[in-house]
Design goal:
The complex is a heterotrimer of chains A (319), B (266) and C (286).
Chain A: H1 16-45, H2 47-53, E1 63-64, E2 69-70, H3 73-104, H4 107-122, H5 125-152, H6 168-192, H7 196-204, H8 209-220, H9 222-238, H10 241-246, H11 264-271, H12 278-308
Antiparallel strand pairs in A: 1-2
Helix pairs in contact in A: 1-12, 2-12, 3-6, 3-9, 4-6, 5-6, 6-9, 7-8, 9-12, 11-12
Chain B: H1 6-9, E1 19-28, E2 31-41, E3 46-50, H2 57-63, E4 74-82, E5 85-86, H3 94-100, E6 101-104, H4 116-126, H5 132-145, H6 149-152, H7 165-177, E7 183-187, H8 195-208, E8 213-217, H9 221-227, E9 230-235, E10 238-244, H10 245-250, H11 255-265
Parallel strand pairs in B: 3-8, 3-9, 6-7, 7-8
Antiparallel strand pairs in B: 1-2, 1-4, 4-5, 9-10
Helix pairs in contact in B: 4-5, 4-7, 5-7, 7-8
Chain C: H1 11-47, H2 53-57, H3 71-101, H4 105-120, H5 123-138, H6 143-168, H7 171-179, H8 184-212, H9 239-247, H10 252-285
Helix pairs in contact in C: 1-10, 3-4, 3-6, 3-8, 3-9, 4-6, 5-6, 6-8, 7-8, 8-10, 9-10
The chains are: A mainly alpha (319), B alpha/beta (266), C mainly alpha (286).
The complex binds adenosine-5'-triphosphate and magnesium ion.
């Protein structure tokens, strides 16, 4: 064997690669550290409430923190119901838009409509809230809610009286608007990913457009669409400012959607900086912890669904 | 900075050297793509590597500049001696090896964000050369050697990707030879090009052999016959036959070589 | 929506259903686009009168007074954003590089997962957590805490776009650089980064657009400040915070300023989105 020619050896220690990759790994670890820090901060912040109030915290329905009564059920209820309303409206609308964009819209119209819908996601949530408070709530109060109460008032959810226009219905509508762009863009991408051959097979069988959507596209894109819906739900559950301005800030559980209510995020936003006792502050932290856990679960489910169709959801669509 | 210092980095002699391959095995994970290749590639000559698709031609030449190990899970056994040195000896820096063994890929891959000039200068800069005038000289020299200078002298600052396919490939050759390597490896350099561009690359390979040891992978039998001094026939990861090009194409010793050469040329 | 499962039945009925679905889909587009235009139009009409020189040059007026502007909030938002960028962009870019270039699929996959988790944390929860980490240990609210909260919100977007843009860089370019004798870090910094740069910039712009209007994470971090300050260790104002306070106030001038601020935010967000889109489109054409 010939000796190694000295010049083929490292001239000097090559530290560039280890240093560079160490650096990248370090910052990758920062992300993990941030998530862990969030969790630790929430747990330690809510420790006192966890200790004193336990899990019944989320089932108690009396919220009078200054008198020491802290039950978070009204907030949990408000969050769930307003998000549910938002999703019930947003899902069919989003699917309709996505189907229109993929199937029917002429090419010159796809880009502009897609852009407009994405703009809906770009508008700061505080502006949705302002608009909801000053425009949408009065509109609902004067027109929609009386009409609903008159015609569908036999249903508990639409029973009167009509109050200020702020409440679960208004919050749900605003949330729907905010969730539509998320569900739409993911559903559209999932439908676009359906192989042309699938659709052509349906069309070749003599299916109409809509039939080919139902036969070939929706089943194929199903898990992507589902992932988008759940991601949208995650956003709705955590949304704060838009809801805080239109929910009515009343910790109560009422069947009527016209009634003011409260949500987990908006009670934190409204009361945290004024929470005077340690337990009060800690209780709000526990609500935050609950919100973290719920959105975490929802997002994990969404990502698993989306990953299984090998589709990337846009990061940063959840607030 | 881990880069070389220009002073010692560029003092390499330009004398071309032979490449000796000893019992070379290459793996992708557990799959053995090269099963013990031993051969001597002479200096100042063009050696063609031929064989059916998937027989290990690309794998073989990627072992000659330690690019093979860049593939996830890939590994190499055996020795490749370039000049005096085994590039697989412990302590050898693959980065150092690649600087001395240039490589041209099947598809032209100029860096899209760099100009024609900067593409050729890229290797020099990556290896720590800073002097502007020195770089300008080396770039011009490389472009002339690559027979591209006259075509691009007026558009040195245009993006490298604005050239035609054939010009891009010659640009990549210029980029490789600007570093003044001892060996130049080409993996089907003309397969993405039209006949005119192909013949320019062939002329270039022949003219460069006075300075370099050239190894060229090709699917094109006529091309091998036209330009190669020596030809190696690979089959299923083995070197079946290695001889003068004339011998391989007229009087092959192995039946498999004969079938392949006949079938393809007939 | 459909009782029937199979596309049988009379041809005319099927045609009609096809048309009905088309109409419903168009309706869905209208349902989404009309409120958008309504919101944009309303913001312009209410906000435009406030956007004069005073808006940018003067601090907020006292309650009930006329005049004044939102300089304290604009400056505060600027400072907070800079802190967020300083924290969020290097983290996102380097973490994205790790995920894309490290060649350890398991690690990269876990990093993406953690990044997705962070992307899903509601911004109000980020605010709470930063309160617990930064504000509680400093003992008071600060612009720094607000910047850190916004930085945390930016990280996932920057990481994901960096990762995806670097993945789009063809391996042929990486091999080209390695074959020239570049160490990996040089290959990444001088070949992969520049090729992915435009996409990464797009991601940063979208990240800024995402956080610039965030109110919730600033409520108990920056907290707000009625005076102009350049001191990031003190409570600092921000546009969305000021808007939130002013819009619910009973004072005319404050409400006008709130809508001026809203319009200003919308314009910035629109510009960022459009520029990002154009940049992205250009890259697609290259
Ligand atoms: N990245 C890889 N991972 C796993 N196996 C690989 C990889 N690249 C090549 N192989 C396998 O190694 C063997 C040799 O491949 P190689 O690319 O060297 O062939 P080739 O002779 O260059 O073929 P072609 O003429 O098509 O370029 C093939 O069986 C191939 O499947
Ligand atoms: Mg090959």
């Amino acid at each position: 064997m010939s000796a190694v020619q000295p010049t083929l050896r490292r001239r000097h220690l090559r530290l560039g690669d280890p240093i560079f990759f160490g650096f990248c790994a370090l910052f990758g670890a920062v992300i993990l550290a941030v998530v862990i820090a969030i969790l630790i901060s929430l747990i330690s912040g809510s420790w006192e409430a966890l200790k004193n109030l336990g899990l019944s915290f989320f089932t108690g329905s009396d919220w009078a923190p200054l008198e020491g009564r802290m039950g978070a059920w009204p907030m949990l209820y408000g969050t769930l119901v307003s998000s549910l309303i938002g999703m019930v409206i947003a899902v069919p609308v989003s699917l309709g838009i996505a189907i229109f964009l993929v199937e029917w819209a002429p090419h010159w119209l796809r880009e502009p409509i897609g852009f407009l819908v994405e703009l809906l996601a770009a508008i700061p949530s505080i502006i949705f809230g302002m608009w909801g408070m000053l425009v949408l709530a009065p509109l609902l109060q004067q027109h929609t809610e009386p009409w609903l109460a008159d015609h569908l008032g036999f249903l508990p959810i639409f029973s009167g009286p009509v109050l200020a226009g702020t409440g679960l219905l208004t919050a749900g509508l605003i949330l729907a608007l905010m969730v539509i762009p998320i569900v739409t863009s993911i559903a559209r991408d999932a439908m676009r990913a359906v192989p042309v051959s699938q659709r052509e097979a349906a069309l070749a069988l003599g299916a109409t457009r809509w039939e080919s959507v139902r036969l070939a596209i929706l089943p194929y894109a199903r898990s992507g669409i589902f992932g988008g819906i759940i991601l949208g739900l995650g956003r709705a559950l955590g949304e704060t400012m838009a809801v805080a301005l239109v929910i009515g800030t009343t910790p109560q559980v009422k069947a009527s959607l016209f009634q003011p209510a409260y949500t987990m995020s908006s009670v934190i936003a409204n009361e945290f900086s004024e929470a005077t006792t340690d337990l009060y502050r800690s209780a709000l932290m526990e609500i935050g912890l609950g919100l973290f856990v719920v959105t975490l679960l929802v997002n994990v489910v969404a990502r698993v669904l989306l990953r299984s169709v090998n589709h990337r959801a846009p990061a940063g669509t959840t607030t | 900075m881990g880069a070389l210092r220009a002073a010692d980095g560029f003092s390499v002699s330009r004398e071309s050297v032979a490449v000796e391959v000893k019992d070379l095995h290459a793996f992708y994970g557990r799959q053995e793509a090269l099963k013990g290749v031993t051969m001597m590639l002479p200096a100042n000559a063009v050696t063609a590597i031929i064989g059916p698709s998937g027989c290990g031609k690309s794998t073989f030449i990627r072992c000659l500049n330690r690019m093979h190990e860049e593939v996830e899970g890939a590994s190499v056994q055996g020795a490749v001696i370039i000049g005096e040195a085994n590039i697989y000896a412990p302590g050898v820096d693959p980065v150092e090896v690649r600087r001395r063994v240039g490589m041209v890929f099947q598809r032209p891959n100029p860096f899209p964000h760099l100009s024609v000039f900067e593409n050729v200068a890229a290797g020099l800069r990556l290896n720590g050369m800073h002097s502007r005038s020195e770089i300008a000289d080396r770039v011009e020299e490389a472009l002339r050697l690559a027979a591209l200078w006259d075509e691009v002298r007026d558009r040195l600052s245009a993006p490298g990707t604005s050239l035609s396919g054939g010009q891009q490939q010659r640009l990549c050759i210029a980029r490789a030879i600007a570093l003044q390597p001892q060996v130049l490896l080409m993996d089907e350099p003309a397969s993405a090009l039209d006949p005119v561009a192909t013949s320019r690359i062939e002329e270039l390979a022949v003219s460069l052999k006075s300075v370099y040891t050239i190894v060229i992978v090709t699917h094109n039998m006529q091309q091998a016959a036209r330009i190669a001094d020596k030809t190696a026939f690979f089959w299923l990861g083995e070197l079946v036959e290695f001889d003068d090009t004339d011998t391989i194409f007229t009087l092959p010793k192995d039946k498999r070589t004969e079938d392949y050469v006949r079938g393809r040329m007939g | 929506m459909n009782a029937e499962r199979r596309p049988r039945g009379h041809v005319g009925a099927r045609r009609r259903r096809d048309k009905t679905m088309l109409v419903l889909c168009i309706l869905a587009v209208i349902v989404a686009v009309v409120p958008l235009l309504f919101i944009l139009g309303y913001t312009i009409v209410k906000g435009l009168p406030a956007l004069d020189l005073r808006f940018f040059m003067m601090d907020q007026p006292p309650a009930g007074a006329s005049g004044g502007g939102l300089r304290n909030a604009i400056v505060g938002t600027l400072f907070t954003l800079v802190i967020a960028l300083v924290f969020g962009v290097p983290t996102g870019i380097l973490a994205g590089t790790f995920a894309s270039e490290f060649g350890k699929p398991k690690l990269a996959e876990s990093l993406r997962f953690v990044n997705d988790v962070l992307a899903g944390v509601p911004s109000i929860v980020i605010g709470l957590a930063v309160y617990g980490i930064v504000v509680a240990s400093m003992g008071h609210y600060s612009g720094l805490a607000g910047g850190i909260a916004l930085g945390m919100l930016m990280i996932p977007t920057v990481t994901t776009t960096t990762h995806e843009m670097m993945k789009l860089v063809p391996d042929a370019l990486r091999e080209g650089a390695l074959a020239l004798g570049a160490p990996r870090w040089r290959m990444i910094t001088s070949i992969v980064f520049p090729s992915a740069l435009r996409g990464i910039l797009t991601g940063i712009m979208l990240a800024v657009a995402r956080v610039i209007g965030e109110t919730a994470p600033l409520l108990f971090t920056s907290f707000g400040n009625t005076h102009l300050t350049f001191n990031i260790t003190q409570p600092m104002d921000a546009l969305p915070l000021r808007i939130f306070i002013f819009v619910a106030s009973p004072y005319n001038r404050w409400q006008t300023l709130a809508w001026g601020g809203a319009l200003f935010l919308v314009v910035i967000v629109l510009i960022l989105n459009i520029v990002a889109r154009l940049l992205g489109r250009k890259r697609a054409r290259d």
